[in-house]
Specification:
The chain is an alpha/beta fold. It has helices spanning 4-9, 31-45, 63-69, 71-88, 113-128, 156-173, 183-204, 242-251, 255-270, 285-288, 293-304, 317-322, 324-336, 352-358, 368-372, 378-394, 406-415, 431-440, and strands at 52-59, 94-97, 102-107, 131-133, 136-138, 142-149, 178-180, 209-217, 222-234, 238-240, 278-282, 311-316, 340-346, 363-366, 397-400, 419-420.
C-alpha cells in the first residue's frame, strides 16, 4: 500500500512537491499536479503509444451532507474518501483531488476499456461504503467518467476534459452508471459549445422569448395568472428545448442575464393585463443566493409600474438547497415587499416538509408526476390528499401542474385543490396570443 507521502511524491518524479501542488484536506495531489502527471506519462509513451486511462469520480448529491450535518462533516468525509482511495492504489495508479468532491484516477496499466472500468468500479465501491461522522454513519453514491488515451497527439488537458464530459453525461442521465468517453460525446460536447455561444449572443441581443401558460383559479373558474416560460429559437439550431438551454445557462453562468431579459419582457407584457391577473416567474439558484435580488426585482417592477402583490416568484427545493441560509434571507427580503413565494415541483426534491416549516411559502405546486397518475394510482391520490391537508393547516394554497384532462381537473376540485395549470387550460403562448386569450375570456384590460 502507498503512504500519503509516497502518493504525493509520485505526482512528479524527481521533484519534491510543494504545498501548491497538494490538496490540504486530503493530502492527495491537486488538479494541477494530476494534469502534470498525465502529461509526464504521455511524454513517456509518445514514441511507443501504449493506451492508458483517466477516470474522474464524483459524489452524487454531496451538498445535502454539508447542509444537514455541517461543512466539518463534509470535510471529514472527503478526507476519509481520500484515504480510502490512497490505500487502494498500487505503485502505478495515481489518485488526486481535482475538485470539491471530485477525484481523479490515473491508470497507466489500464490498456483497454474493460480494465479501466474494473479499476474505476473498485474505487466507486470503496467510496459508496458508509462513512463515519461522529456517532453517525452516512452513505454517498458516486459516479464516474472514463477517457482512454489512444493517440500520441492527444494532450493531457483534453484527455481529462473527455473524462469530465463522460462524467457530466452520466450525471445528466442520473443513472449513476460509469461511462467511457466516445466520439459521440465529443461531437455532442462541440455542439453544446456552439449552442452556448449562440445562446450568449441571443441573450445579448434580447432574442430569447417569453411565453405564458394560464393558471386557473378553480373557485372562480377563470384565469388567475400566467407562468412565464422561456423559449428560444436559433437560426441554426432551430427551436431549442428549455431544459437544454436553461441547463447550459446555469452551468455557464448565463442564468442571471437570461433571467433579466425574460423578466423585463414578462413585465412589459404584463402591463396589458387586468390588474387582478398575476405573473408567476421562476427564480434561479444564483438569484436565491444574491443579496441584491429583492432590490433588483423591485427596481424592475417600479420601472414598469407593476404592483409587487401581482408578482409571484417560483423557487425549487433544489435551488433552496444550494444555499439555504442565503435563500432564506432573499425570500424574507422579497416578502417584506408583499411579493408572493411559491414552491415549485413539490415532492421531487429533498427535505420538503422541513422547507415548508422553515420558509414562508404562499403557494405550493404539486408536481405533474403525481397529477398524471392521479386517476390510475391510489398512492398518487393519497399523496395529493396528504399535501392538501398539510397545506390547508399551514395556510398555503395549492396549485396542480400538468393537468391534461377534465377528469383530472374535476378530481382535483373534489379533493380541495385551489387551482391548476396544464394543457387542458392552454399551452404556453406568446405575448400577443396571451392578450387575445384574455380578451376572449372577457378579461382584457379596461
Amino acid at each position: 500500500m502507498i503512504r500519503p507521502k509516497d502518493t504525493a511524491d509520485m505526482a512528479q518524479p524527481g521533484a519534491r512537491p510543494g504545498a501548491e501542488t497538494l490538496d490540504s484536506l486530503t493530502g492527495l495531489p491537486n488538479r494541477r499536479r494530476f494534469i502534470e502527471k498525465v502529461e509526464a506519462l504521455i511524454d513517456q509513451r509518445r514514441s511507443d503509444p501504449a493506451p492508458f486511462a483517466v477516470a474522474i469520480i464524483d459524489f452524487m448529491d454531496f451538498r445535502p451532507i454539508n447542509d444537514v450535518f455541517g461543512s466539518e462533516a463534509g470535510d471529514d468525509i472527503l478526507a476519509q474518501a481520500g484515504m480510502r482511495l490512497m490505500n487502494a492504489t498500487n505503485g502505478e495508479t495515481l489518485v488526486a483531488r481535482v475538485g470539491g468532491d471530485v477525484f481523479g484516477v490515473l491508470m497507466p496499466m489500464a490498456f483497454n476499456e474493460s480494465a479501466a472500468r474494473g479499476t474505476t468500479e473498485l474505487f466507486c465501491d470503496l467510496l459508496s461504503a458508509p462513512f463515519d461522522i461522529g456517532e453517525r454513519t452516512v452513505r454517498v453514491a458516486c459516479t464516474a467518467g472514463i477517457a482512454l488515451w489512444t493517440t500520441p497527439f492527444q494532450q493531457a488537458a483534453a484527455l481529462v476534459r473527455n473524462a469530465e464530459t463522460a462524467l457530466y453525461t452520466t450525471k445528466k442521465s442520473k443513472s449513476g452508471a460509469i461511462i467511457v468517453h466516445d466520439r459521440a460525446m465529443e461531437e455532442e460536447a462541440r455542439r453544446l459549445i456552439r449552442m452556448e455561444q449562440a445562446l450568449r449572443n441571443a441573450i445579448s441581443a434580447g432574442m430569447v422569448d417569453v411565453h405564458f401558460q394560464p393558471i386557473i383559479c378553480f373557485r372562480r373558474n377563470r384565469i388567475a395568472g400566467f407562468e412565464a416560460l422561456a423559449r428560444w429559437t436559433d437560426p441554426d439550431f432551430g427551436p431549442v428545448r428549455p431544459d437544454i438551454f436553461i441547463d447550459i445557462a446555469e452551468r455557464r453562468g448565463l442564468i442571471g442575464p437570461l433571467s433579466r431579459v425574460l423578466f423585463e419582457k414578462a413585465l412589459i407584457a404584463m402591463r396589458g393585463w387586468p390588474e387582478d391577473v398575476f405573473l408567476s416567474f421562476n427564480l434561479s439558484p444564483s438569484q436565491l443566493s444574491d443579496a441584491s435580488t429583492a432590490a433588483n426585482v423591485m427596481a424592475a417592477l417600479h420601472r414598469h409600474g407593476i404592483q409587487p402583490n401581482r408578482l409571484e416568484l417560483e423557487i425549487t427545493e433544489t435551488a433552496v438547497m444550494a444555499n439555504p441560509g442565503a435563500a432564506a434571507r432573499v425570500i424574507a427580503d422579497l416578502k417584506t415587499h408583499k411579493i408572493r413565494i411559491s414552491l415549485d415541483d413539490f415532492g421531487t426534491g429533498q427535505s420538503s416538509l422541513g422547507r415548508l416549516r422553515e420558509l414562508p411559502f404562499d403557494k405550493l405546486k404539486i408536481d405533474r408526476a403525481f397529477v398524471s397518475s392521479l386517476l390510475s394510482d391510489h398512492a398518487s391520490e393519497t399523496i395529493i390528499r396528504a399535501i392538501l391537508a398539510m397545506c390547508h393547516g399551514l395556510g398555503i394554497k395549492v396549485i396542480a401542474e400538468g393537468i391534461e384532462t377534465r377528469e383530472q381537473a374535476a378530481r382535483l376540485v373534489q379533493l380541495g385543490c385551489h387551482g391548476g395549470q396544464g394543457w387542458l387550460f392552454g399551452k404556453p403562448k406568446d405575448t400577443a396570443a396571451t392578450a387575445a386569450l384574455l380578451n376572449a375570456n372577457g378579461l382584457a384590460k379596461a
